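ok trying again, last paste got cut off:
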Amino acid sequence: MSAGASVVNGIVSFYSFCILAYVLMSWFRPAGIFYDIYTILGQICEPYIGLFRRIMPATGGMDFSPLVAMLVLEYLIRPGLVTLIRITGL
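nice, full thing came through this time. structure:
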């Protein structure tokens, strides 16, 4: 795997972890430093998750948009970017 593909894999993995942490923290009432972390994660993750929230309605009070966002990130965006990097030779 090229260096560029490794960087893309690392960035996508980190962003997926941020989305997961944001979703898990939203289930609880973060306070103190955890609220600050939750706010920062929201600023990082919400623009991407919001794309899927506008498309998908909440089903029975459950919001599946973070799950769909992570699946798209892992199975469409990551392979597409890695293939593009391999083709360009970066």
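cool. Helices lie at 3-26, 33-55, 65-88. The chain has a mean pLDDT of 91.
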